[in-house]
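Worked Example 4.2. Consider the chain below.
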Amino acid sequence: MTLPMTRRSFLKTAALGAGAATGSSLFCAPSIFAAGKPSSKLATVVIGCGGRGATFHIPAAAGERLVALVDVDDKRLEIAARPPKAKHPAGDEKKVAGVDFSRVKRFTDYRKMFDKMGKEIDAVFIATPNHHHAPISLMAMQLGKHVYCEKPLCHDVSEARRMAEFAAKYKVATQMGNQGHSCEGMRRLCEYIWAGAIGKVTTVYTWSNRANGGVGPRPAATPVPKGLHWDEWIGPAPYREHHPDTIVKAKDGTTKVVELHPHEWHNWHDFGNGSLGNMGCHIIDGAFWALKLGHAASVEAEEVIGGSDERYPVGTRIRWDFPARGDMPPVKLYWFDGKKKGAKMELDANDVPGSVAAGSQNLPPLVEELEKKYKIKLGGNGALYVGDKGVIWSDTYCMSVRIIPESQHKATPVPRKTLLRITGSHTDDFLRACHGGEPACSNFAYAARLTEVVLLGSLAYIAGPGKKIEWDGPGMKCANMPELERWVKCPVRKGWEV
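Applying the procedure from the previous section yields the following structure tokens:
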């Protein structure tokens, strides 16, 4: 049953659920309040045309009025701008069929795109490496453009704060690409926990089978691949000569060069945020919302496997400590990722890039216990919420939510629907906001706070095992480890400042 809600009661409920990050703008825009069908299309730009950019953002942008594509890789630009009669990487011919790609402008540098087309565009979709997220978003918002940015929202904590400030200052529509936040499961999780289905939650375990890290020194410099604009790829990060991520050996003795572009940049401090940065804004989102988490009091990498001064580890266990919030008790949030202790650290050419086989995955012991006891599989990514009356499990994007064991789930009263639902996709939610509807559900006011929690975990990676960071949230400082300030606010290369 859906509760009847006036707009005033909706805003009151949203504000109560926001915890430290208050205000209706943090919560999902109900379709019943969305603006009517627009009379004109948005002029859109996709920045980063591979992966998510190709498969999700180009179709969404083409559903409006796609006017430009930006990518540092000439090959990706060429593939993204194929005529509709060819098989388009977006995989949705209906949405791109009406686009004359010969009229869509192409750029390899988003700064030049903004200089030339800043007055012509309305919204940008961003699917670049993490270290470019903030510069693009900040430039766009300064120009009054709406922004959809992939997760994590940015590369360092100071950028998260600025992105939330810019979104409020320039009054633009925003959305982070943690698409599970628009789904029914996320709301069911909140409603179960808020209804007391498992009692007071004091511990949350989250985990991922990703292994976005490495071992050993930086490989030797190599020639820049043809068509890759390396200086633009480096962008705001400290400059370095081109080099691969690693060179690995296959079982047959052959070698394979694994490049930084297009994916393995996740493994390096200067460009990505490790496995946690890759998946944390999906998997931790439920805990952040349902438990009304604000600033962590501390964060610590309890175990680190692999890694180096420049690379993230291939396996970790991280713990955040959050103080009590209202009637909610203090909570410990754990993150497990990558390979378990004792597993072979080096990847080889037969490994799936960025993921770990089930037998060697680093998992919370409670997950393994529950799988064995109840003969269930909880997946390579997920979360367990441990209360004093039971346990709830959610999957990668919080689309599936179940109390364990299943018999307890069936015996638990289904909570009333107190949160309004999203109609359509996460992108639809963003586009409604662009056309004058309510703020998108993972807008930057919300997403920046979630991202900050995730990025604190990346700081713990860098600090090293057993070094607890005492976090001064309001002051945005590592109170006991000032040497980490360089990673709270990363230096920006000349020419890329915003």
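The first strand starts at residue 43 and ends at 47. DSSP finds 16 helices and 17 strands in the chain. Compare this with Example 4.1 before moving on.
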